[in-house]
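User: I'm new to structure prediction. If I give you an amino acid sequence, what do you actually give back? Let's try with this one:
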Amino acid sequence: MSSERDGSGQQGRDEAGRFDETVTDQEILKVFDYEDDPVLTASEVATGLQRFGVQMTSEGVRNRLDSMADDDFVSRKQLGARAVGWWAEVAPELAAETAAEVDRRADAEEWDEL
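Assistant: Good question. You get back a string of structure tokens that encode the predicted 3D arrangement of the chain. For your 114 residues, that looks like this:
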């Protein structure tokens, strides 16, 4: 399967016409890191993904969050008869260039301003 998200943020399809899983766990975790409220609904996560140019339905987000909960990346709590709140249990990984900059600064004698 060699399909990727195109420049519009739309999900790609494989050769059989099925949607590729193009949204990474890291992209979902970034939404939790970006938002002020630590507890989000699946709809809020879907809206947050749009800020990063990623399109995913609330149902798709809900399914992914369920899977991520199995891996202890997120947790959930029933907030009402139908509402579920989600929060991240782990932080997103730093981008490679950010991690390299952190390492460089850790070894520096004097810290530069960001």
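You can read the tokens as a compact description of the fold. Here is one thing that stands out. The helical segments are 25-34, 42-51, 58-70, 96-107.
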